[in-house]
Design a protein that fits this description.
By secondary structure, the chain is an alpha+beta fold. The chain has a domain of about 45 residues. Helices cover about 30% and strands about 15% of the residues. The protein has one helix and three strands. A three-stranded antiparallel sheet has the order 1-2-3, covered by helices on one side. The longest helix is centred in the middle third of the chain and has 21 residues. The radius of gyration is 14 Å and the shape is globular.
Length: about 80
């Protein structure tokens, strides 16, 4: 089994908890009351997402050629 690494983004919600996404896997989103729970939930969501892609014969996206930068702007 090939090991894949995905970047995840956590967003603290006003009502509490965290929404977490895997940007490379469009539509792969989860939630958790704590950071640890959110990370565990997105891990499961990613595994299910990849399983569904495999079952339908689709290509599994990777981040091999992804470059990440952060920009600071004045607003």
């Amino acid at each position: 089994m090939k090991s894949l690494t995905y970047r995840i983004l956590l967003n603290k919600e006003q009502e509490g908890g965290y929404t977490v996404t895997a940007p490379t896997l469009q539509g792969c989103i989860s939630y958790g009351e704590t950071i640890d729970e959110a990370i565990e939930n997105i891990k499961e969501a990613i595994e299910l997402y990849i399983e569904a892609l495999k079952e339908s014969g689709e290509t599994i996206p990777t981040e091999e050629n992804t470059l990440e930068y952060s920009l600071t702007i004045s607003a």
